[in-house]
Design goal:
about 15% strand; 9-stranded mixed β-sheet; 8-stranded mixed β-sheet; alpha/beta; globular; single chain
Length: about 800
């Protein structure tokens, strides 16, 4: 069998492809799944008659496709009963009863669970039976109140509103609603932890008791790690010591929620994110430990020594602790893959069959998709299997071409280097698509950190877990040493990624480019190994296709030929991306949430949108005024994009976000411009931008009225961005002589509040359309009904981000078109 056949025609290869095709068809098809399945069966019958494939593989493929297409169609169908929780997502407050069905995920000031709803009560008397899975978020102040522990299978009552799972509707945006639906979650509730009523009822099934045991073990381990972090030094733990505690907890238990975004980013920039995932390395260490224990015990039994069954028996027994550890660590796709591959290899060992690592990988992927078809869309699933596939394929390539050195130590170092390189090749498109990062020093950091963290810190952590109950003193010693080592590792990683040349931000590749990349890498490998002319020609064609696709993307990015204004859906806030005909870019505000929300609109909405549009640099950023709903997303933008100029008003704001932004701008040497009452004007070819501020001595107490007002002109088209100005400032503008207000399109002042959009202002602007950027069912009840009626009387067409999603305007300088991301 040639290498190409070995890589792509292993028995389970086509079965896996059938599973994947079934998942994609089930969630994307506009027709009922049975229509799809009949069509596929008819096509398969024709293929069978023409090519006579292996009957078992052929039937397995049909069964795999049918199983997943019907399961995915059932998951994606929104046909809910009258008692489903989606019927109660109406803004009213209920007493909701349900059963916790997950292990807790603990964050800094909140804890998250999932719960199965059993009943809903609106008037404290009559309980309406209800069904459906909810995401439960409990807020708490760990400094002033104890954090309650809710256990798997525990029955609780919580008073809250039930919120529908809802997306931010932006082009190419993250489909949060779909991801939650894959988990069966269709609603969310938020409450303070002290409002929870624990009824005392618990699920007493064997599985629920086992999950509670694992949850308590996780909690005790986390507490022991916290104690270790406190005694690593006489001084209070610093940032890196605290984060070493979080990283150690993630390494052993899979709970990564307490890891700070800065540490996550550092691991991504250094190409070390895989270390934080519980995967094959963890399972190997756990399996080796228990295998040694079982072998030690069984070798004391004469019957096992005489018959030679000790190794095979130990191989079967280690599946129990491995499965328990997989559940303990969260049972993520990477953990499932490692567990299934271990089980398959052990089965082959027991049956004394030859082990095919690629076929084993295909079996593992297929079994995961049988258990959970939605895992296909998991980043963990995609990264895990892409990396392992290219590692296995890469070593097959080496075996056919270069071979490995004979020297034992050189061979070990070579193995580590090649493993890192092959994993990097496999992961590159996935990490670029999801994280927009390319680590330049991945090989070097892995050579240093994988041995230290993977073969020293992780075993110490696992030993601390195993000895926690039997030898607590020794366990505490291991954990203390571990935290100390990890703290130095985190500081080293932070120092390395502090150099700009060690990592680079990249644009989001399109699916066609990812397909071309993987096909090209495989063709190059096959062409070198087999010296096949057809493969060489195919490699050339794929290279040309990649260049054409990339060139088309570059042309669209830098020479769009028209003015494009994207008003993004950032919830209750403002963010607008402007792309000039010559490719120049301007960002006006970046949205943001205040209060106890940790959602970063810059990281999760504005930044990804820019990368998807192949924007890595911004010619200018305008902050209309330093309110959280306009400002908080900017910190991520300044940290991760090349910004040439920042335009702001005279206001300052005593908040951590504003101080962080000012520090970043100063560190990166970004030019700051502060307009006053004399308009600042600059031009990009035929696009003219005018910005009007206020003199520092004329600042109002109301920050909204200090907003910068920006006017955009492109030939005969114009658009006005007035920030959050209110009635008083609107009247001032109406009488301003040096700033023209008349515009085709108006961004609604202050999100359409009652205090803005006065008659005199609308008469002066006289827009044909208005875009209102506001949050769905926001607490301020924007836009105001009076304002909407005023727009209607003036015959102004209204576009709302809360109902229509992102609003995209395109203009050739004479006319314009407006498209919304979703229908109203």
């Amino acid at each position: 069998m040639n290498t190409r056949h070995k890589l792509t025609l292993a028995p389970m290869f086509f079965v896996l492809l059938s599973f994947i095709a079934g998942v994609l068809a089930g969630c994307c098809t506009p027709v009922p799944p049975w229509v799809y399945y009949i069509a596929v069966c008819l096509l398969a019958a024709i293929v069978f008659m023409l090519s006579k494939p292996d009957k078992f593989i052929f039937l397995s493929c049909l069964a795999a496709f049918g199983l997943t297409v019907f399961r995915m169609a059932g998951i994606c169908t929104s046909d809910y009963s009258d008692q489903h929780i989606v019927r109660f997502c109406n803004g009213e407050t209920y007493r909701i009863s349900g059963v916790i069905n997950s292990i807790s995920k603990k964050y800094q000031n909140k804890t998250r669970y999932t719960m199965d709803c059993t009943g809903v009560c609106a008037d404290n008397t009559f309980v309406t039976p209800a069904e459906g899975k909810l995401s439960l978020t409990l807020y708490h102040d760990s400094n002033t109140q104890p954090v309650p522990s809710l256990f798997f299978g525990e029955h609780i009552i919580v008073t809250s509103k039930i919120r529908a799972i809802r997306n931010f509707f932006n082009p190419g945006g993250y489909d949060y609603e779909f991801r939650m639906r894959l988990r069966g979650i269709t609603g969310s509730i938020y409450a303070n932890s002290n409002t929870i009523v624990q009824t005392g009822k618990v699920n007493s099934s064997l599985f629920a008791r086992g999950m509670r045991f694992l949850q308590r073990t996780q909690g005790r381990f986390s507490n022991n790690v916290a104690k270790a972090a406190k005694i690593t030094d006489d001084r209070p733990p610093d940032f890196f010591s605290n984060q070493a505690r979080a990283v150690l907890t993630a390494l052993v238990t899979g709970q990564k929620e307490m890891i700070h975004e800065k540490i996550r980013d550092n691991f991504s920039k250094a190409g070390l994110s895989h270390i934080l995932a519980v995967s094959g390395l963890h399972m190997s260490l756990v399996g080796l430990g228990f295998f040694s224990i079982f072998i030690f015990i069984l070798n004391r039994q004469p019957s096992y020594v005489i018959t030679g069954r000790a190794k095979k028996t130990a191989g079967v027994l280690i599946l129990l602790p491995l499965t328990a550890y997989a559940f303990f660590a969260g049972f993520s796709p990477s953990t499932q893959r490692a567990l299934i591959m271990t089980a398959v290899f052990l089965t082959a060992f027991l049956m004394e069959k030859e082990k095919d690592p690629l076929n084993t990988l295909y079996v593992a992927a297929s079994l995961i998709l049988i258990i959970n078809p939605g895992a296909l869309f998991s980043i963990s699933f995609q990264l895990s299997f892409a990396c392992v596939f290219f590692i296995i394929s890469g070593f097959i390539f080496l075996g056919k071409t270069l071979g490995m050195p004979e020297n034992k130590w050189i061979k070990r170092v070579s193995l580590m280097i090649f493993t890192t390189v092959f994993a990097g090749i496999g992961a590159a498109p996935v990490t670029a698509f999801y994280f927009n990062i390319f680590p330049m020093v991945q090989v070097g950091t892995n050579l240093i950190m994988v041995p230290v963290i993977g073969f020293l810190c992780l075993p110490l952590g696992l030993a601390g877990l195993m000895f926690m109950d039997f030898l607590p003193g020794l366990s505490q010693f291991f954990l203390t040493l571990d935290v100390h080592i990890l703290s130095y590792c985190l500081q080293a990683i932070h120092w390395i990624t502090g150099f700009d040349w060690t990592w680079a931000r990249v644009v989001t590749p399109r699916p066609i480019e990812i397909i071309i990349y993987y096909a090209l890498i495989l063709c190059i490998g096959f062409a070198i190994m087999e010296k096949n002319k057809a493969l060489i020609y195919l490699t050339f064609l794929l290279t040309v296709a990649g260049m054409v696709s990339t060139g088309q993307g570059v042309l669209k990015r830098f020479y769009p030929g028209k003015l494009v204004v994207h008003t993004l859906d950032v919830g209750q806030g403002n963010a607008a991306v402007i792309i000039a005909p010559d490719g120049k870019t301007l960002l006006i505000d970046a949205g943001g949430f205040g209060g106890r929300s940790s959602f970063d609109t810059g990281r999760y909405i504005v930044g990804p949108f820019l990368w998807k549009n192949w924007i890595l640099a911004l010619d200018a950023v305008i902050l209309t005024h330093p309110d959280s709903d306009h400002m908080n997303g900017l910190y991520f933008i300044f940290e991760n994009f090349r910004v040439r100029q920042w335009i702001k008003n005279h206001d300052t704001f005593s908040s951590a976000f504003f101080e962080n932004i000012m520090h970043t701008v100063e560190k990166k040497g970004i030019k700051i411009h502060v307009p006053d009452s004399d308009p600042s004007r600059f031009s990009w070819d035929q696009v003219k931008i005018s910005i009007l501020g206020r003199k520092s001595g004329d600042l109002a107490d109301n920050r909204n009225n200090n907003s910068l007002v920006t006017r955009l002109d492109f030939l005969s088209f114009s658009m006005l961005f007035p920030g959050d100005i209110e009635g008083k400032r609107e009247r001032e503008l109406a009488h301003t002589k040096n700033f023209r207000l008349k515009s085709d399109i108006l961004m609604a002042p202050h999100h359409g509040s009652c205090s803005s959009s006065s008659k005199i202002f609308l008469d002066k602007v006289s827009p044909a359309g208005v875009i209102i950027s506001c949050g769905y069912m926001n607490k301020h009840k924007f836009p105001c009904r009076t304002v909407l009626q005023r727009y209607g009387r003036n015959r102004i067409i209204v576009f709302r981000t809360d109902l229509m999603g992102a609003v995209t305007l395109q203009s050739d300088g004479f006319g314009y078109t407006i498209k919304t991301h979703r229908k109203n």
